[in-house]
Each structure stands twice: as structure tokens, then as C-alpha cells.
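User: I'm curious whether this sequence folds into something compact or stays loose and floppy. Could you predict its structure so I can see for myself?
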Amino acid sequence: MIEHTGKRPNRSLAALAGLVLMLASATASLAQESTEGVFIDGEFVEGYAFVPDFMSPQELKRLMDEGSDEIVIVDTAAALIFEEEHIPGAVNFPWVHEIALPVGLPRDKTLVLYCACQNHEDSADMAEKLLHVGYYNVQVLEGGWFEWLDLGYEIAGLVAEAQ
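Assistant: Here's the prediction. I'll summarize afterward.
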């Protein structure tokens, strides 16, 4: 049998326990919702799926032939592969899991990324990563390195020098 002491229960303790239960319940329900999205430039974008803008090899070649200073060609290959062969005038910005800031690429030019992948995997991934750090004028070379070669366009690097 419980003996009554005449003391009132501590209401602040009961209120605190109720608040803890309420927060735990709210947190559990939020954890069950699987809202997918990403933060882009500090804003959460729900349901985001990245689709890169593409530039055709013919368009890139035309811009190169015109001497356009509005583009920067970016090869996402590892440095040793870049040394072997790349598109003339390209800069090497190898694929990485996470981009380290600051990025040494200009923001006021169109960046045209390419890779030697079957489906633009590395260049599209780097384009998305660059978008997330504020690069909004990025395109992926349609067909990538292999399409450039198939079209018989000029290449640079040790392979080209040996020919």
C-alpha cells in the first residue's frame, strides 16, 4: 500500500517528461519520412535528380576553331591519363569523391567537362558536384572522349606527340 505523504507531485518534472515524449514521437515520425533531395547553394531541393546539359562535339569543335574565350574544356581523367592524351586546350580536373574548395576553375566561362566513360559517369558526376558549389554554367561533352576520337578530331598529349 502506498502511503500518502501530503506532498504534491512535482508538476515541472511531469511536464518535462511529457515534452521529452512528444519530441521523441515527432523525431520518430520524421525519421520514417524519407524525403530525398539535396542542398544546392544552401537551399534544400526535394526530389532532385541531376540531368546535365550537354554540348555536342561538333559545337565544341566549332567554338575551338573560332578561338572562343567563353569556354574552358575540362578533362576529368586522372593526371597520368591526361598527360597521355586529351582534347587540345583542356585543363585537367580529375574526378574526386568530394570537391575541395576553392575550385580552381573560372565561374564566368562555360565549363565543358568530358571523360572516357561509357555513359558520361565521371563528367556528369563532376558537373553535379560543381553545381552544388555554385558553378551554374557547366556542360558535359556528349559522347565524351570516345566520340571525340571517333570523329577524328585532334588530340594532344604524349600520344599525339609520338605520332
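Summary: The first strand starts at residue 37 and ends at 40. The chain is about 35% helix and 15% strand.
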